[in-house]
Task: inverse folding
């Protein structure tokens, strides 16, 4: 009877040993996508790192979603296989057992990629890691502000629009008046062109005294952003009725001072010639 217990225990430990040995045969399968946020048409490198723990590599398979597009099998004559996949361009010469380079990346590649590593006999262990990639297109130009031409005072309504050229995803736009946010859009794909969309933000703001700064000025900014990827802004000083020195005049200040400085000199020269001719005549 006691012998059975011993055999049972021995079986248990042997099973446990082989089981855990298999499990730890392949370790640390990790996929990293560099860059993971990639500009449309650019390239990205998918790196798969793994620890074979003395086992032999059988294959590394690469998937976009559920579909395989690249396979590396060192034991076969043709080690690499590229499977046709609409929209994926593999750079074969820079791809190997640990990385795949994708070129001319299309928008529809946004999504999950995975690498699946399998070791050879006797263990034949498989492990997978998955990461996501996002394909973007930044706006080609800065945002533009358009406003009416009227001089603004408390009680008036400030009307403006800000517009950012096509991007994907559409940028978030924000209006700031004297550095305080007064409007923000919730970007959604509309006015679409070639899978990209404009972003627009209208502003209709009844002005009161608190909107003007201490000098009675109104500085309007439009900020365009894709968090972590893109940030651009433009600013425009609006004509304010409260501004003691209107913008148009302030812009001319420098010129005015220069001409004021030349005036005394002109008078002196004129006086000199008058005096000189008077003296000459008197002689
Ligand atoms: C895309 O590629 C261009 C030129 O190679 C590079 O200047 C730019 O930084 C890349 N953009 C992104 C988002 O990777
Ligand atoms: C991805 O986009 C490219 C070009 O726009 C197209 O040729 C390809 O068929 C698309 N692939 C899929 C899976 O939709
Ligand atoms: C795969 O290629 C990259 C870049 O050329 C290189 O750094 C890496 O060591 C290669 N991997 C193997 C296993 O040869
Ligand atoms: C990508 O993977 C994440 C987590 O694994 C999942 O939540 C998400 O739905 C996947 N995205 C797609 C497009 O399959
Ligand atoms: C803002 O856009 C709207 C709609 O396109 C237009 O009717 C309005 O005149 C524009 N306002 C300004 C100040 O440009
Ligand atoms: C605008 O506000 C931000 C914080 O909201 C602050 O860091 C910045 O200094 C302010 N700029 C000016 C010109 O007041």
Result:
């Amino acid at each position: 009877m006691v012998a059975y217990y011993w055999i049972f225990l021995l079986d248990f430990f042997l099973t446990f040993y082989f089981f855990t040995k298999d499990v730890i045969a392949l370790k640390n399968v990790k996929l990293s996508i560099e860059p993971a946020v990639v500009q449309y048409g650019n390239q990205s490198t998918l790196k798969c790192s793994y620890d074979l723990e003395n086992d032999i590599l059988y294959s590394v398979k690469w998937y976009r979603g559920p579909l395989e597009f690249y396979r590396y099998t060192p034991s076969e004559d043709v080690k690499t296989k590229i499977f046709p996949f609409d929209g994926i361009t593999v750079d074969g010469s820079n791809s190997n057992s640990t990385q795949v380079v994708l070129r001319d990346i299309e928008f529809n590649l946004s999504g999950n990629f995975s690498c699946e590593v399998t070791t050879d006999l006797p263990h034949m262990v498989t492990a997978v890691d998955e990461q996501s990639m996002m394909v973007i297109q930044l706006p080609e130009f800065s945002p533009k502000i358009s406003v009416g031409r009227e001089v603004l005072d408390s009680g008036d309504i400030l009307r403006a629009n800000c517009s950012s050229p096509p991007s994907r995803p559409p940028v978030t736009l924000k209006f700031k008046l004297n550095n305080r946010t007064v409007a923000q859009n919730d970007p959604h794909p509309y006015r679409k062109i070639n899978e990209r969309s404009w972003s627009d933000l209208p502003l209709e703001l009844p002005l009161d005294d608190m909107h003007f700064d201490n000098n009675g000025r109104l500085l309007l900014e439009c900020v365009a952003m894709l968090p972590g990827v893109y940030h651009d802004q433009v600013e425009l000083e609006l004509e304010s009725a409260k501004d003691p020195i209107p913008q148009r005049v302030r812009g001319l200040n420098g010129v005015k001072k220069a001409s004021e400085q030349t005036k005394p000199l002109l008078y002196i020269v004129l006086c000199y010639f008058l005096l000189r001719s008077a003296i000459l005549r008197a002689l």
Summary: Residues 54 and 280 are 113 Å apart (CA to CA). The longest helix spans residues 247-282.
